[in-house]
Amino acid sequence: MMRAVVVAATLLLGVGAVVAQQDAVKHAQGFMKGNGKNAGALAAMIKGDKPYDQATVDTAIAQFEDTAKNLPTLFPESIKGVKAEGDYSPSPKIWEDQAGFSEHIASFAKAVADAKVAIKDIDSLKATLPVIGKQCGGCHETYRVKNS
Ligand code: HEC
C-alpha cells in the first residue's frame, strides 16, 4: 500500500515536470510564432501585397525587441531534448554551445536595434528586412531542428 502511494506520488511528480517542460516549450514557441507573423506582415509590404504602414513596422520591431530581450531565458536547460509540438524543436546545441547561442542572440538584438532606426519607408524596409532575416535564419540553421 505504502509502496503504491510512493509510486503514484513519484509518477505525479514526473507528470508535473513534463507539463512544466511543455509549458516552457510553448512559451518559447509563442515568441517565435509572433516573429513569424510579424516578419510575414513586413514581407507582404515588400511584395506589394500590402501598402507600407509604419504602425505595422513599429509593432513588428517591438515584438522582435521583446523576443531578443527574452531569448536568454526562453530555453532553460530543463527542456533540453524535448520534442515540441508542431514542425520544429529546439536543438540540443542551444545548451551544448551556450556561448555561440548567446552570440546569435546578441547579433539578432543588434540587427533589430539598427532596423528600428533605419526603417522609415518601403525602400529602407526592403534594405533592412533581409538583414534581420539573416539573423533569424542564422540562428535556426544551428539551433533549431525540424521534427521528423
Ligand atoms: C537566437 C536564436 C533565434 C533567433 C534569433 C530567432 N529564432 Fe526562431 N526559433 C529558434 C528556435 C530554437 C526555434 C525552435 C523552438 C521554438 O519554436 O521555440 C525557433 C522556431 C521558430 C519558428 C517555428 C515556431 C513554431 O510554430 O513551432 C518560427 C516561425 C520562427 N522561429 C521565426 C523566427 C523569426 C521570423 C525570427 C527573426 C525575426 C526568429 N525566429 C529569430 C531560435 C531563434
Structure description:
The mean pLDDT is 93. The chain has one domain (2-146): Up-down Bundle (Four Helix Bundle (Hemerythrin (Met), subunit A)). The N and C termini lie far apart (42 Å). The longest helix is centred in the first third of the chain and has 46 residues, at 2-47. The protein is mainly α. The relative contact order is 0.13. Helix content is 77%, strand content 4%. Strands 1-2 form a two-stranded antiparallel ribbon. Helix 1 (2-47) packs antiparallel against helix 2 (54-74), helix 1 (2-47) runs antiparallel to helix 5 (122-143) and helix 4 runs antiparallel to helix 5 (122-143).
How would you write the strand order of the largest sheet? 1-2
Radius of gyration: 19 Å
**Strand share of the residues?**
under 5%
Low-pLDDT runs of 5+ residues are none
Structural class: mainly alpha
CATH class: Mainly Alpha
Mean pLDDT: 93
- Could you tell me how far the N terminus lies from the C terminus, measured between alpha carbons in angstroms? 42 Å
CATH architecture descriptor text: Up-down Bundle
Residue share in helix? over 70%
Beta strands, count:
2
* CATH topology title: Four Helix Bundle (Hemerythrin (Met), subunit A)
**Dominant shape:** elongated
Count of all domains:
1
The CATH H-level homologous superfamily: Cytochrome c/b562
**Bound ions, cofactors and other small molecules, one mention each:** heme C
**What order do the helices and strands follow?**
HHEHHHE
